[in-house]
Amino acid sequence: MSASLSDRIDQGTGRVAADIVLKNGRFFDLVTGECIESDIALCGDRIVGTCGSYQGVEEIDISGCIVVPGFIDTHLHIESSLVTPHEFDRCVLPYGVTTAICDPHEIANVLGTEGIEFFLDSARETIMDIRVQLSSCVPATHLETSGANLPIETLLPYRDHEKVIGLAEFMNFPGVIHKDPVCLAKLEAFQDGHIDGHAPLLRGLDLNGYLSAGIRTDHECTTAEEALEKIRKGMHILVREGSVSKDLHALMPILTERLSPFLALCTDDRNPLDIAEEGHLDYMIREAIAHSVDPLVVYRAASISAARAFGLRDRGLVAPGWRADLVVLESLETCKAQMVFSGGRRVTDALFATRRPVAPVGLDSVRAGHIHAAAFAVPYTEGETSVIGVLPGKIITEHRRFQLPADGNQTGVDLGRDIIKVAVIERHGVNGNHANGFVQGFGLRTGAIASTVGHDSHNICVVGVDPDDMALAANRLGEIKGGFVVVENGVVTGEIALPVAGLMSLEPYESVRDTLHHLRQAAFALGATLQEPFLQLAFLPLPVIPHLKISDKGLVDVDRFMLIG
After folding, report:
1. Are 40 and 326 in contact, with CB atoms under 8 Å apart?
2. How many other CB atoms are there within 10 angstroms of residue 492's CB atom?
3. Helices 509-525 + 85-92 axis angle, to 10
4. Which end of the chain, N or C, is less packed with Cβ atoms under 10 Å?
5. What pLDDT was estimated at residue 561?
């Protein structure tokens, strides 16, 4: 909804009535930190007037409200919301998120360029501005079997796409530091564009080498000390608060006015149930202010600082000439959106109805074949057995060792110490690999839960107490073309179908939200103690220090890899 330059000048000077005027409110000036009483005039997709009085073709009374720039989620995987980009748009935009910078890494690891094109086509239709970063690590690691391989030659045709910002999170930082030719080829191709970072726990000279490759952002900081070192070395820190990875409180010491130009906010992975219960970036803003962070700091991080970090020079301030992405709030502290404008368009149900649909892809991506209970048997051996230790609220896991009981000639579970079975089953139809291990920390006392969402290669991951229940859960995933399944005593007690690449639902986000609530209750009935057992299951295959990874290729000690998150 762009307007001519001539129209913008005429409406900005007041010679012609503006298209829309927000009257009788205030706006939050992110330069001075003041709340300024003023009309706000819009022409097409731009703000053309502030700090004055305007007449409008449409005038909207916002008495008592404060206007802030639209929020920018600087790093997320829309697939992890479990809904398509169209439904994510409808779910999140009313919370004030007008720009989302996504990495279609998950669908790319399943479908390759077909998945990337699905996101690019969707981004052309959504009301919010979805920007795409090209997935840099497909496959994510040689320790796993994914459904695709994307060398630099497959990414270059999309480099200049109108919705592409640059190269997505470069997770393989050991490959950068040790000059892996495949890594260097991708980095070389994007030296004049944005390269997103991903470097958990990377410090010192190794960090210097990583940054020397032209990488400028990181969303993996889990301590203020780590974040401060990276800021000192020129990185822009994306403070993350998702459904599993929750770093906001740990990073609050760096949320200061001095550092605010080098901060942004992101969710990485957040599902519709958490959005409904808590919110999205608005939740982060409220939470930070409630813990004494200056509103100027967190609203800067949510908009202008985020925009500058990713080269989006047209948004992030309530000022003439800037993109009319606006959130009308009842107060800065509550951050509750009363009204949202995206590119000058007031967000309504009718506006969402104007979008053209995009055909779903990957509806036959679960090809694991039939799985028998005997496949989950682990032969008994003397001595200690490696066990993955789950850390609630973190994607980082621990490598633990325990003497486990014998069950005949097999290694049994140990419910007294919360140790149950875990398996990863290759589901792309590449090699049929199946690997078993043990995990501590899920809390299950019976049954099994299974998922086709298994970062980053998205094979089937199943945890459980009983092999028959584990087999039933895994096989049910094939029948529903992917998703989450809960089984108890031979009965499916909860499920959600995610047929789009085994990652996303075809249902409205409200339906997904309600089903997730039921799924969570079904998992709790098994004894699950984790608040987000399904997302924790989805992150279980990740190789992150200190970690014993279970993949379709086996249970492997990967303490030197620390690639993914």
Report:
1. yes
2. 16
3. 90
4. N
5. 39
Dump pLDDT digits (tens) for 406-455.
999 999 999 999 999 999 999 999 999 999 999 999 999 999 999 999 98
Residue of 541, 562, 558 lying closest to 455 (CA atoms):
541
Q: How far is CA 133 from CA 239, 311, 364, in A?
A: 18, 13, 25
Distance CA 7, CA 48 (A): 10
pLDDT at 105: 94
Q: Measured in whole angstroms, how far is the alpha carbon of residue 534 from the centre of its chain? A: 15
Q: What is the pTM of this model?
A: 0.93
CA angle 510, 276, 267 (to 5 degrees): 110
| Separation CA 111–CA 199 (nearest Å) | 25
Cβ neighbors of 440 (< 8 A, separation 6 or more) are 387, 388, 389, 390, 400, 402, 417, 418, 419, 420
Strand partners, 67: 27, 328
Beta-carbon count within 10 A of 495 CB: 21
Distance CA 301, CA 94 (A): 19
What single DSSP character describes residue 128? S
Q: DSSP letter string over 21-83?
A: EEEEEEEE-TTT--EEEEEEEEETTEEEE-SS---EEEEEE-TT-EEEEPEEEEEE-GGGGTB
pLDDT value of position 37: 97
* Residue 392 per-residue DSSP state: T
β-bridge partners, 435? 424
Contact 446, 490 (CB under 8 A): no
Q: Is the Cβ–Cβ distance between 449 and 463 less than 8 Å?
A: yes
Label residue 543 by pLDDT band (50, 70, 90).
low
Our CA angle for 482, 486, 492, nearest 5°, is 95
**Which residues have a Cβ under 8 Å from the Cβ of 6 and sit 6 or more positions away?**
none
> What stretch of H or E contains 520?
helix 509-525
3-state SS assignment for residue 369: coil
Q: Which percentage of the chain shows pLDDT scores above 70?
A: 97
Peptide bond into 499 cis (omega under 30): no
**DSSP per-residue string spanning 57-72:** EEEEE-TT-EEEEPEE
Amino acid at 429: G
Find, among 453, 450, 455, the residue nearest to 503 by Cα. Answer: 453
Going by C-beta distance under 8 Å and a sequence separation of 6 or more, which residues neighbour residue 529? Answer: 392, 441, 442, 443
Backbone angles phi, psi at 433, to 5 degrees: -65, 150
CA angle 322, 327, 330 (to 5 degrees): 140
> SS3 sequence, 166-223?
EEEEECCHHHHHCCCHHHHHHHHHCCCCEEEECCCCCCHHHHHHHHCCCCCEECCCCC
Q: Report residue 29 CA to chain centroid gap.
A: 29
d(CA 5, CA 20): 16
Q: Exposed, middle or buried by CB within 10 Å (0-12, 13-18, 19+), for 384?
A: exposed
